[in-house]
Write a structure and sequence with these properties.
single chain, 65% helix
Length: 182
């Protein structure tokens, strides 16, 4: 049983066309996946930009400025109402309550910022404010009067070179040295 040349030719043509068709379909699938990935990345970038803008608008400095401007606005409004003879006692009391609430919010924010600074102080150089570079605890075993004792050591290093070992300053703060030389 022999295959004719014509049958062989058309079989080869069909397999080449099938191969090219399959290749084209795979290419289109890959392109559509790439486009979907690009679109997803664009959405992620937009989302992250929105989050960054929200974070910037919620920073303590921005909130403090906003509260300060609200307090000033309420104080001005209250003065205007007190001077205006047609305003009622109820309106004045309402504005005083709003002013009191704004001042309480400002005081609360101030307390939170101070608390954050207190928490952060352990991570900053006490001399120049440089960031904490390393904080480690080590222990060693020593023999004392025939007994083995574990001694704990605390090592703290800041980016400026200032070091504290077991509560005693060992390194020198480069930034405070530079400040004293100028």
């Amino acid at each position: 049983m022999s295959i004719s040349t014509e049958t062989f030719f058309w079989t080869q043509v069909a397999s080449i066309i099938t191969f090219l068709g399959t290749l084209f379909v795979l290419y289109r699938v890959l392109v559509s996946q790439k486009d979907a990935t690009i679109e997803l990345q664009k959405e992620n970038i937009t989302y992250l930009k929105d989050q960054l803008a929200d974070a910037k608008s919620q920073s303590p400095d921005v909130l403090a400025q906003s509260l300060a401007s609200r307090v000033k606005l309420f104080e001005a409004e209250l003065k205007r109402l007190e001077q205006d003879k047609s305003s009622t006692l109820e309106q004045i009391k309402e504005k005083e309550a709003e002013l009191k609430q704004a001042r309480e919010e400002a005081e609360d924010l101030t307390k939170k910022v101070q608390h954050a600074h207190e928490l952060l102080s352990g991570f900053l150089c006490p001399q120049c404010g440089a960031s904490l570079a390393e904080k480690a605890y080590h222990y060693e075993s020593v023999e004392y009067q025939g007994r083995e004792i574990d001694v704990d050591h605390e090592y703290i290093a800041f980016e400026c070179g200032y070091e504290i070992i077991d509560g005693v300053a060992k390194g020198r703060c480069r930034n405070s040295v530079e400040k004293s030389n100028t």
